[in-house]
């Protein structure tokens, strides 16, 4: 059985909070199934347990910590985060013969059994026994879904528990606080000064907090070095042999050389009192910045020199990158002559990476760190100036230089024309495919829409295929029931969806036209994509070839690149959410799980458990917060599925618990029939459990991956590339059927009134609620 062949709504996970409860029904009726409600911090706990106020002993804390470490939900939490969870757990008891919860009950808490024994029952059949130290109910911490099993007490039982909202708040508070502290510390550490904000953000996410006790040796002279440390709290002594060289305090750092080279420690570092350090390993750093860390920092300095230079900053980003690729880096000693007196000043452009540059006789400093020199002579149109003094290194340092000929080749070659051409192509396509269509659609009235066919029933109402009398074009009209949205407190989410649809404007994403509303529903008028779901297409094709996979993965990458540059995270990349249109090109058709992730403080992390289990990134499952890089994990899953015919984690599993545990713990393996080594390397990158590794530094780097070596991104954007699959006519809605339905059909208003009449009889006429005033 293909576990992914279920209906999309059954397979997709939403968590309460940001996308609050998606299940319908009367909540009060549901609560009648539960015998006890414990109010903790305003949250209702539905499980049948009795809370007892009891202070934890040291033994209790140790016992709980040991148990938590055996469960996948807590697998990636730090010691400090686990201790914070333990502090918030409550003690409770349940009587012999009682059910703590029953299958399909509302789920709130995770429990650890301290005393007694329990029976797990599924579909009225005993499955296993739980004893002291066992935990159960983990999935309740991740999302709001009914219990998949019953748990009954064999005897009187004592337990430790924590509810979902307390758990999520505790983790979010700790992660946010720790990340912000780490990021702040990085700003005062010299090593990080030459990195971009994006690189600093990525590194802050992988810093590890380590504790050392008084007199404990942190690093030992002569030992191999592989980690760099920043002191967060406390004082350390730096020793050479037995002699103290200096003391380091909060904000100081040591071990920097270990990040650049395989080296041994030159000195011993000992904790003077209890010390807390942020540790960064060379392996983690190189995964983010690449093997040559010093080259990355040098390049950043060169780029800043260009960007803050009045003349060089006029170059395009692509031109600057091209120039930096060609610039030669070299170490220099104080007094080294860079350009001799009597030569033309416009021979080269020089960037100072370390040190400074001066005129030899006058001693005037002409450039310091992260500054360029020579561009004012180089870019002059009149006769080049002859130097009247030697230009020499003022101090020992490192410089980058480029000759006149190489510079001209970089800025006046084909690169510039290609960039301009791509920009024009994209601009033209956006104007044609979206802007013009949207402008036309503003004249469409709901009363003039012809009902062609009801093509689906969404969670909150029907989905219609309609034709506009105004321009004779086909559209999709989605209805959303205001009463259901209000009952489930999803007003905020649908306002977010409306805002997202208004923002998004990209050829490979479905176009939003306009909204309508009446007393019962709001409506979104969307582009009609005539085609097939990618889910069905890849099953028609079978195992995809390298080119087929490149085509679909490249299309997904273009889509996510666009969304991420708009500060939008998607969170549910999977074949079911893409259509292959009648020309064979991909189109993203649903933005229901997307979210804007930029706030007043810049890019923010989000914590909602949302998505489809087989495609969810591990950081979503762990609840530690995540960013746009989760979308690249999902693309990696899709690539694996295309070329291997299955998903890499939980292929045979139906229980979300089993899927999640594999995603977090299982190493990726490849079937013997996958021979494409470059594809495997790209999958390894996209499916890295270190999110910052997936992008490879930038989207330009990702698109330049060796697997895409012969792939034409320009032609894909132009839609002039060969498509792997054209949906056959018999799987598309035939034109003749559309014409027949059109001739015999009725106006959409009649169809809507007929569907709404039942709800009106039930008194569901809501009128305007306020949240939809802009629709």
From TrEMBL:
A cellular component term, taken from the record's GO annotations: endomembrane system
Listed GO biological process terms: adenylate cyclase-activating G protein-coupled receptor signaling pathway
EC number: 2.7.11.12
SMART domains found in the cross-reference section: cNMP (SM00100), S_TKc (SM00220)
Cofactors named for this entry: Mg(2+)
Region Disordered, residue ranges: 1-30, 749-775
Record keyword ATP-binding present: yes
Residue span, AGC-kinase C-terminal domain: 709-775
Catalytic reactions on record: L-threonyl-[protein] + ATP = O-phospho-L-threonyl-[protein] + ADP + H(+); L-seryl-[protein] + ATP = O-phospho-L-seryl-[protein] + ADP + H(+)
Composition bias type Basic and acidic residues, residue spans: 13-30
Biased composition regions of type Polar residues, renumbered to the chain: 1-12, 757-768
Cyclic nucleotide-binding domain sequence ranges: 73-188, 191-290, 311-351
Ranges for domain Protein kinase: 449-708
Main location group: cytoplasm
Compartment(s) where it occurs, according to its Swiss-Prot or TrEMBL record: Cytoplasm; Endomembrane system
Family indicated by similarity: Belongs to the protein kinase superfamily. AGC Ser/Thr protein kinase family. cGMP subfamily.
Identification of the protein by name: cGMP-dependent protein kinase
């Amino acid at each position: 059985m293909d576990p992914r062949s279920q209906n999309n709504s059954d397979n997709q996970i939403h968590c309460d909070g940001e996308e609050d409860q998606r299940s319908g029904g009367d909540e009060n009726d549901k609560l009648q199934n539960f015998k006890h409600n414990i109010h903790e911090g305003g949250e209702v706990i539905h499980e049948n347990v009795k809370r007892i106020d009891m202070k934890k002993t040291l033994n209790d804390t140790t016992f709980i910590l040991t148990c938590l470490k055996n469960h996948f939900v807590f697998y990636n939490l730090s010691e400090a985060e686990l201790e914070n969870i333990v502090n918030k757990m409550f003690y409770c008891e349940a009587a012999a013969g009682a059910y703590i919860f029953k299958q399909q009950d509302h789920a709130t808490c995770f429990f650890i059994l301290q005393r007694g024994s329990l029976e797990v029952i599924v579909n009225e059949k005993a499955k296993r026994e739980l004893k002291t130290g066992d935990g159960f109910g983990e999935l309740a911490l991740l999302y709001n879904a009914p219990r998949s099993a019953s748990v009954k007490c064999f005897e009187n039982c004592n337990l430790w528990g924590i509810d979902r909202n307390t758990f999520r708040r505790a983790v979010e508070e700790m992660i946010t606080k720790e990340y912000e502290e780490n990021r702040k510390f990085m700003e005062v550490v010299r090593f990080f000064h030459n990195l971009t904000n994006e690189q600093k953000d990525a590194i802050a996410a992988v810093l590890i907090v380590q504790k050392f006790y008084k007199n404990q040796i942190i690093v030992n002279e002569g030992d191999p070095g592989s980690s760099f440390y920043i002191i967060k709290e406390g004082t350390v002594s730096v020793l050479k042999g037995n002699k103290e060289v200096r003391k380091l305090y909060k904000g100081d750092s040591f071990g920097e050389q270990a990040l650049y080279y395989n080296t041994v420690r030159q000195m011993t570092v000992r904790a003077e009192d209890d010390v807390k350090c942020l540790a960064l390993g060379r392996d983690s750093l190189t995964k983010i910045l690449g093997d040559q860390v010093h080259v990355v920092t040098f390049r950043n300095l060169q780029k800043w020199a260009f960007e803050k230079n009045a003349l060089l900053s006029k170059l395009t980003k692509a031109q600057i990158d091209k120039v930096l690729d060609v610039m030669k880096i070299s170490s220099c000693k104080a007094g080294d002559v860079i350009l001799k007196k009597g030569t033309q000043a416009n021979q080269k452009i020089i960037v100072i990476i370390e040190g400074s540059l001066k005129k030899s006789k006058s001693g005037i400093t002409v450039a310091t760190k992260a500054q360029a020199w020579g561009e004012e002579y180089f870019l002059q149109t009149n006769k080049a100036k002859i130097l009247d003094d030697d230009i020499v290194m003022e101090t020992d340092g490192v410089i980058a230089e480029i000759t006149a000929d190489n510079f001209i080749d970089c800025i006046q070659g084909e690169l510039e024309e290609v960039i301009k051409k791509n920009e024009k192509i994209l601009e033209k396509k956006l104007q044609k495919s979206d802007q013009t269509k949207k402008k036309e659609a503003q004249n469409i009235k709901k009363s003039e829409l012809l009902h062609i066919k009801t093509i689906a029933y969404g969670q909150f109402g029907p989905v219609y295929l309609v034709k506009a009398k105004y321009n004779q074009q086909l559209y999709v009209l989605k209805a959303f029931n205001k009463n259901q949205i209000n009952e489930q407190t999803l007003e905020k989410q649908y306002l977010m969806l409306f805002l997202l649809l208004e923002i998004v404007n990209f050829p490979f994403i479905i176009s939003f036209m306009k909204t309508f509303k009446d007393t019962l529903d709001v409506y979104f008028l969307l582009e009609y994509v005539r085609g097939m779901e990618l889910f069905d297409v890849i099953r028609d094709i079978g195992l995809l070839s390298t080119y087929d996979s490149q085509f679909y993965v490249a299309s997904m990458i273009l889509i996510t690149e666009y969304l991420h540059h708009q500060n939008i995270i998607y969170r549910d990349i999977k074949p079911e959410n893409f259509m292959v249109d009648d020309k064979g090109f991909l189109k993203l058709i649903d933005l229901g799980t997307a979210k804007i992730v930029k706030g007043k403080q810049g890019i923010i992390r989000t914590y909602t458990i949302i998505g489809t289990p087989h495609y969810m990134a591990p950081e979503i499952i762990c609840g530690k917060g995540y960013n746009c890089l989760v979308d690249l994990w999902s693309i990696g899953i899709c690539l694996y599925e295309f070329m291997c015919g299955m998903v890499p984690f939980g292929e045979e599993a139906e229980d979300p618990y089993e899927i999640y545990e594999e995603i977090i713990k299982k190493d990726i393996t490849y079937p013997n029939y996958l021979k494409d080594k470059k594809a495997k390397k790209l999958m390894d990158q996209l499916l890295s459990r270190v999110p910052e590794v997936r992008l490879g530094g930038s989207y330009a780097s990702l698109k330049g991956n060796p697997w895409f070596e012969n792939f034409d991104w320009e032609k894909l954007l132009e839609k002039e590339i060969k498509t792997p699959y054209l949906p056959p006519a018999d799987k598309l809605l035939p034109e003749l059927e559309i014409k027949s339905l059109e001739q015999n059909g009725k106006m959409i208003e009649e169809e809507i009134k007929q569907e709404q009449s039942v709800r009106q009889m039930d008194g569901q006429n809501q009128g305007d609620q306020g949240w939809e005033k802009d629709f």
